[in-house]
Amino acid sequence: MTSQFSDRKYVIIVIFSAIILIFLTRLFYIQLIDDQYKLTARNQAFRYMVDYPARGNVFDRKGKRLVYNQAAYDLIVIPRQVKKLDTAEFCKVLSIDRKIFLKRMEKAILPPNSSRKPSIFEKEISIEHSSILQEKLYKFPGFFLQPRTLRKYPEPIAPHLLGYVGEVSEKITDTSSYYMDGDYIGISGLEKAYEKVLRGIKGTHIEVVDVHNRPQGSYMNGMYDTAAVAGKDIVCTIDAKLQAYGEKLMLNKIGSVVAIEPSTGEILAFISSPGYDPNLMVGSALPKNYKILQQDTLKPLFNRALMASYPPGSIFKLINSLVGLQEGTLTPENLYPCRGGYPIMGGKPKCHAHSSPRDLVGAISTSCNSYFCYVFRGIIDAKKFGTTKKGYEVWRNHVLTFGLGKPLGSDLPYELRGNVPSIEYYMKKFFGKNDFKSSTIVSLSIGQGELGILPLQMANVMCIIANRGFYYIPHTIKSIDGKSIDQLGFRKKQITTINPKHYEIVVEGMAKVVESGTAAMQKIDSVPYCGKTGTAQNPHGKDHSVFVAFAPKENPKIAISVVVENAGFGSQFAAPVASLMMELYTTDTIKRPEVEKRMFEMDLIHKIQPIKKQ
Amino acid sequence: MSREQKNIFQNIDWIITGLFLLLVLLGWLNIYAAVYNDDHNNILDISQKYGKQMMWIAGALIIAIVVLIFDANFFTAFPYPIYIASVLSLIAVIFFGTEVSGSKSWFRFGDFGLQPAEFGKFAVCLALAKYMSAMNTRVEHFQTKVIAFSIVLFPALLIVLQKEAGTALVYTTFIFVLFREGFSGNILLGGFFTTLLLLSALLVNKTVLVILLALIAAVISFAIWVSSRNRKKAKRVIWAVFALLIIASGAVLGVDRAFSKMKPHQKTRINVFLGKEVSKDMKKKAGYNVNQSLIAIGSGGFSGKGFLQGTQTKYNFVPEQSTDFIFCTVGEEWGFLGSAFILFLFLALILRILFIAERQRSSFSRIYGYGVASILFFHVTVNVGMTIGLAPVIGIPLPFFSYGGSSLWAFTILLFIFIKLDSNRLLILR
Ligand SMILES: [Zn+2]
Closest approach of chain A CAs to the CA of B311, in angstroms? Predict the structure, then answer.
């Protein structure tokens, strides 16, 4: 009876199977092809919580703590969870007004934030304030405190060396896979140089939340979590006592001090004045304070020790002497006349009054300009080179081996190169198609003209002379996490092209500078040392006072360069600062309290400032 | 072969029984996963859904055995009394039922509830089988059609009155049975177009739709009139077209009225499915279910997140995850593999039932089997379809899977009556 319709079962079977097939296709699409559901699921159910490791501490060479972390709290908000908030009371507790409250809530809700995700409502609430807040937090559902560490500088010294930590820029977050919006990063100084060492490695843990955003524990027992790795402590080469003392001496003066241990290249003191209290450049106060410091006409943020390029003045005579000795165009016994200036070129450059003629040691100790014009021209005009141009090239190549005209390659960021003019530069500027003439560039004899040397390079030149012919690249790192830094390349001896035997006579000359020459006023009892005064030309105002030195004369422990801007002769300002610092470092005491007192009180800034203000 | 069965398990189809047991077990595991949390993980914890479901399953097994113990003749002899009892219970629940979220379809006994609508299905199945297999029933007769439709639609109407429109829709699935039994093939087309019409009635403004239908009818009539040589026959056809127009218009207006009487949550659910503009707040809430369901299933990927590792289902992102949206747990924790496997199990079960139905000597058993297969098919299609966004959100359970005693028991009875009928097929002559 019904068998006539039994073929219809196939129609039904086909319909049933077809629909199941459609479903399978759909499942295939949403489960295997379309990724959006997986992403949305993660966004909904996972909170990727970042665990911030403690940033490494920084110690000075004697183990004194220079930088550590201070706990603070960020107030976090999850807008969805904010319910029945007494806005007035909330604002009162945080001491903000309603407008700010609404603005921040808006920011927390709008992309890239969202009302489901936690975002920072207020940063860096101090421990004291946070404990008050914590008590009232139960009244404000949706808000909670998250610990965060801030840098703290127990002694407000060495801001330019230590650098600072700030919020990472968009430029970095865009290109880096590590940094995320709101992270902190070393922006300058050691904090930047050793960022990777100090920061440690962030950890993440995935927290699963339910539909009401209530935490439900970790995902897969933390299988995909990564533990934070704490930042490593570093010991820097700075002597905090010397650094602090130097900063005190440089108070109210513009300039810089760099002190290096010649036998290792370790930077002992690194001062750029005026400086600032590094505690100003911390956390949420940073942008405001940065702006204030940036607008300061004395440029406290400017790292003069690394970034100010000065014509070195008379201290460059030492290098010219060494090159002359090496090339055989000068012997220590050479005598050259001085008649208040360089006689060959009509008494220019000028010189001060002193007995004449003088030998090399005498010329160094009195810093005779005329003498070194003879020396310099003697080198580059030497017949053996054929042309002056060739002579200049030979001279320049010697000079470059003193670590000049290029970055030294220290571990501090933003190091400039200084300048030792190239032949091409001079040809273009002066000679064109004419012959290269030594008289045109005679100012190089006495360290003037186009020469540019950084205070760090000056101190390094002192290391070279102190070591009689070599240096180690100056650096500020002594050990990382208790391990030595042999692999960083600072242990390699950098040798000059000058035979070590030629150094002794220059050392003698520098000793004479202190015994009876231009720095005779700045002797240190029981510590014979070598120094050289200089006056760096300043086309914008009064010349800069420069002094370079190392002490003691034999087995030197410290090499130093001091620049005091707009202060005139090197002997007057730079030499006392350098000698006091060397005295402290080598003898651990100061036996010249009157000099110290004079330098502490000397105010070169406000002598200049009133003129500008009126 | 003796006339008396010695063993109630004798001759029962083990493939169907096996598939049934497997689906029930997998269903329970997924309910456990959906509800599971660390505080409550005792599988017999009666305060938790999986604990209760365990009891429902135990009850279902007992029911299955009881059904097998019954003499098969009981089911062939008493479909009408069973049907009448079922209809009475459907009426009674309208008056004496407990109201649960807007619907009055439950009898409550303390913590547990029974839903007569679930049991209506097998009653209709039996009654339809009885009527269609009767010696004097002739499919060609108009009267047969009226009665067959009435048997199906009367309980459906009562269920609509309980405000369970979703459950009532299940009864449309009997068109497959009627088709198999010789109703015109147009019944499937009709079913298809009715679905289309109902959906478009919800989508398009009713007046526009009625005018549109009238225009179509006029165009068709004109075409028939012009092209037909037999004017008398054409006249008849045109009358039929206009009769259809009136019925369609009535249906459209009826749908609109029924729709306006729907519970708000149902209304928004359907509107969201249709993409019709609703107030944003409501849209968010209704579309939210489907969206969360898609996210849960889609995030499962190829092989899923693993048993008890689902985040979307476990942490309540998916609403009604242990009942209507249980398939999300499958999709999330077992991925494409698991979802496909479950669908294959259902398809295998349904096709096996069809296969067995076809081998029955008695048309009663065959018709009943088709009824069972159609009901299962409708439930699977609509339930899984809504979780993957291919069907409107109608609150009907996934057979054997979804949490809930009434549906599990009802499906068990439905299925085991068929198993019983089949096991007896050799005993029935003719
Ligand atoms: Zn002179």
Answer: 6
